[in-house]
Design brief:
The structure is a homodimer. Chain A is of the alpha+beta class. Helix content of chain A is 19%, strand content 31%. The first copy, chain A, has 2 helices and 7 strands; from the N terminus they run ββββαβββα. The longest helix of chain A is centred in the last third of the chain and has 15 residues. The radius of gyration of chain A is 14 Å and the shape is globular. Chains A and B meet through strand 1, strand 5 and strand 6 of A and strand 1, strand 5 and strand 6 of B.
């Protein structure tokens, strides 16, 4: 590619059940190995960020995303200790079910007390932003 | 960097004056050489997308961005003929003034009839999305 080097593009997916529990994984690999995190990962070349978000959610939790709503873009250079990444976060409408961990996830579960657990990266902020959007947005979640 | 290859990260900046004219540049280089486009460009490693948006706007038009509001994320793999890019688009509050073209811009101007000019890339869609946000959002433009 003739492009200059840019931050690596990632995506994170936020899903809440009807009681406000958040769907989280436990990271299988460093950094933050064993810690709670949002399902997500790198966007492939040739893939939209929305497709990557759905793919990562499904690979790591077995849960399929319905409509997606853009929460925000997180690009602080120090957000990932491995190097500069930029994450596009989406709030996903899902049919709550029993998650099944896969790929980079050692575990996947609905977490009720997500506000108090120690989350990897800047995921506590992303989750808080997503919850604000969820409570403000009501049912008008639309796919971009 | 130990990261897998991802789409290249870019940003585009939308600014309207009080009459709804859009701040556009004419591209100095291929692709779409000579055509109207939004000010924007590649995000540098070590730079937030918001900082890149402000930098590109200033380099290409001489206009300084105030508060920024996220418009959307545009990542269709075919949106740039050079390869896969993902653009983060922001609506910027600016003090309208006489633009001065620089860097990758051969010209910079406020364009009243932007709906009918032939815009590079997917910039017609980005501009339309930004205008919707502007007319819906009123004065609640906030910096992320």
């Amino acid at each position: 590619m003739p492009f200059p080097q840019t931050p690596a593009l990632t995506t994170d997916c936020i899903a809440f059940d009807e009681n406000g529990a958040a769907l989280l994984i436990r990271r299988k690999n460093p950094p933050y190995e064993g810690q709670f995190a949002l399902p997500g990962g790198f966007v492939d070349v040739g893939e939209t960020v929305e497709a990557a978000c759905r793919r990562e959610l499904c690979e790591e939790t077995g849960i399929k995303a319905g409509t997606l709503r853009l929460v925000g873009v997180y690009s602080a250079p120090d957000r990932d200790p491995r190097g500069h990444t930029c994450s596009i976060a989406f709030l996903a409408k899902v049919t709550p079910g029993q998650p099944k961990a896969g790929d980079d996830a050692a575990a996947a579960q609905w977490v009720t007390d997500w506000r108090t657990v120690d989350l990897a990266f800047d995921h506590a902020k992303i989750l808080a932003d997503a919850e604000r959007l969820r409570t403000v947005g009501g049912d008008d979640i639309t796919s971009p």
